[in-house]
Amino acid sequence: MSISINVQTHDFSVGEQHGALCSNNKSDGAVVTFTGLVREFSSGDNVIALELEHYPGMTEQLLQSIAEQAQTRWQLARISIIHRVGYLALGEQIVFVGVTSRHRQAAFEGAQFIMDYLKNHATFWKKEHFKDSSNWVEFKQSDKQALDKWQSIEQDAIK
Amino acid sequence: MVAGSETNLNDTDAAAGHVNVLFFGQLKERLKCDKLTVEIATPLSIKAFKHMLVEQNPHWQSWLEERDVLCALNQTMSSSDELVKAGDELAFFPPVTGG
Fold first, then answer.
1. Whether A124 contacts chain B with CB within 8 A
2. Would you call A6 exposed, middle or buried from its count of C-beta atoms within 10 A (0-12, 13-18, 19+)?
3. Is the minimum CB–CB distance between B91 and chain A shorter than 8 Å?
4. Cross-chain CB nearest to B97 (options A55, A57, A137)
5. In this predicted structure, what is the pLDDT of residue B1?
6. What ipTM was assigned to the predicted interfaces of this complex?
7. A65 touches chain B (CB under 8 A)
């Protein structure tokens, strides 16, 4: 099992990441990847760019922990998480999560679980830049609800 | 200085020293401070530590004590009753918004 964690300012190639997840991998039949992009509209105004800040050290530890939690719940042989920081223009890639598994359900669920945990726990903060102003993004309750779903699934499994 | 309730007075000298304090996100911008070093004589709770920072910087109160501020002690999410000791790294930040 392998976990790759990268917090970086530079862009990444989804093709290269996908290739690394598949390379010399004869046991896994499923690869699921998610890529997050800077959106055009967020809170009604025109967003020009995003600025992403993080807590160096703690962020990498948290992402590693999220990936390890996913591997305890699903059989995920390879996990790659990339999160960019700094200034990102519209349409740029922000985040990548790629997982491999023997079968598709574990790969789909594992990738979604990692994104939901990342949104709620990983120490990143986003600031939206508009034409004449900027605004720190507020935490969304919908992200908390997405995370709660996994916790209730776990509780049901224990029952 | 606010003393930790469980501190043995004989340990005071050994416990004295610096705490590295970090701020992130909107909090950093509002406080106009990204990091500072604070001298403590004895271990004290995170809640007491925050109160001490506000006593030293009264205009920080609405951001540190009244807002939804999260805290990590030595890069682990922590509750306000945990003890801060010399040599620790203590970070304050708003709820996270990555991804």
1. yes
2. middle
3. yes
4. A137
5. 41
6. 0.89
7. no
Distance from CA of B9 to the nearest CA of A (A): 33
The pair of three-digit structure tokens given for residue A125, joined into one six-digit string: 């903060």
Residue contact B97–A139, C-beta within 8 A? yes
Contact residues on chain A for B94, CB-CB shorter than 8 A = 125, 136, 139
Continuous segment of H or E residues that includes residue B22? strand B17-23
- CA gap B13, B10 in Å, rounded: 7
Tell me the per-residue pLDDT of A38-96, one tens digit each, with 9 for 90 and over.
987 656 668 889 999 999 999 999 999 999 999 999 999 999 999 999 999 999 999 99
* Dihedral-angle region of residue A33 (phi above 0 means left; psi in -120 to 50 means alpha; beta otherwise): beta
